[in-house]
């Protein structure tokens, strides 16, 4: 068995011990399903550093190392973060990037400088000041962090950025072009928590 700590937009967040290979859909059901019957948008299956997986791919996963790996992510710590359709993915990444920026101990340059860049660039996109080349800039910064740091925090900070842009590029591009969120206003207003979209 493995313990999964299910948090985010579920009706019964908590710790669930299930056999490896349990379908994600079953784990989600154990956690009471997506709150208020909303649609699942995405899930981070293995803690905040694990690459995000879009809903459709996640619903096909079983909770084991191979299946999550095939979906492009990691089982990691088993900290499952569920995000429903009210989630602004730019806001979510801003929050995650801020965490790694704050956690960097500053010992090595790629992490110390890079986590700062990642947070600041995502922050300006979220707040309507994104620039046309910001997504390429973010990719470039992550490439210059990955594998070049003393501990794993550099990689941990980079993987969310790479995966959010890979799977939700349209949402980031919309923010940059229109200086506002792609998530419909009525859904934004219904959202809550760290990943609530800015109205
Ligand atoms: S990678 Fe690790 S050691 Fe290097 S600055 Fe970041 S937290 Fe410190």
Structural class: alpha+beta
Instruction: Give the number of helices.
Output: 8
The distinct bound ligands, ions and cofactors come out as: iron/sulfur cluster
Under CATH, the topology of the largest domain is which? Answer: de novo design (two linked rop proteins)
The H-level CATH homologous superfamily of the largest domain, spelled out, is NADH-ubiquinone oxidoreductase 51kDa subunit, iron-sulphur binding domain
N-end to C-end Cα span: 42 Å
- Shape descriptor: globular
Q: Topology of this protein?
A:
Elements: E1 2-8, E2 14-18, E3 22-23, H1 24-30, E4 40-44, E5 53-54, H2 55-59, E6 62-63, H3 65-70, E7 79-84, H4 89-103, H5 109-126, H6 134-145, H7 153-178, H8 185-190
Your description of this structure?
The structure is a single chain. The protein has about 200 residues and is an alpha+beta fold. The chain folds into 2 domains: about 1-85, Roll (Ubiquitin-like (UB roll)), CATH 3.10.20; about 90-180, de novo design (two linked rop proteins) (Up-down Bundle), CATH 1.20.1440. The chain has helices spanning about 25-30, 55-60, 65-70, 90-105, 110-125, 135-145, 155-180, 185-190; strands at about 1-10, 15-20, 20-25, 40-45, 55, 60-65, 80-85. The protein has a 5-stranded mixed sheet with strand order 2-1-7-4-5. The longest helix is centred in the last third of the chain and has 26 residues, at about 155-180. The chain is globular and about 40 Å long. The mean pLDDT is about 95. The chain binds iron/sulfur cluster. Iron/sulfur cluster (SF4) binds near residues 105, 106, 111, 112 and 151. The site of iron/sulfur cluster (SF4) has 12 residues, from helix 5 and helix 7.
């Amino acid at each position: 068995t493995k313990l999964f700590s299910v948090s985010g937009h579920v009706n019964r967040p908590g710790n669930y011990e299930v056999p490896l290979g349990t379908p994600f859909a079953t784990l989600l059901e154990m956690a009471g399903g997506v709150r208020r019957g909303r649609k699942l948008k995405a899930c981070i299956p293995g803690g905040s550093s694990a690459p995000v997986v879009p809903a459709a791919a996640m619903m096909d996963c079983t909770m084991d190392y191979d299946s999550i790996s095939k979906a492009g992510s990691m089982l990691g710590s088993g900290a499952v973060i569920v995000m429903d359709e009210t989630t602004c993915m730019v806001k979510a990444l801003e929050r995650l990037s801020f965490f790694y920026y704050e956690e960097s101990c500053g010992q090595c340059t790629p992490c110390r400088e890079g986590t700062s860049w990642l947070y600041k660039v995502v922050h300006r996109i979220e707040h309507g000041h994104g620039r046309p080349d910001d997504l390429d800039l973010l990719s470039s910064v992550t490439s210059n962090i990955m594998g070049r740091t003393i501990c794993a925090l550099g990689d941990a900070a980079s993987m969310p950025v790479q995966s959010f842009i890979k799977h939700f590029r349209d949402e980031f591009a919309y923010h940059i072009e229109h200086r506002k969120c792609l998530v419909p206003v009525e859904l934004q207003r219904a959202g809550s928590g760290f990943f609530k979209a800015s109205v």
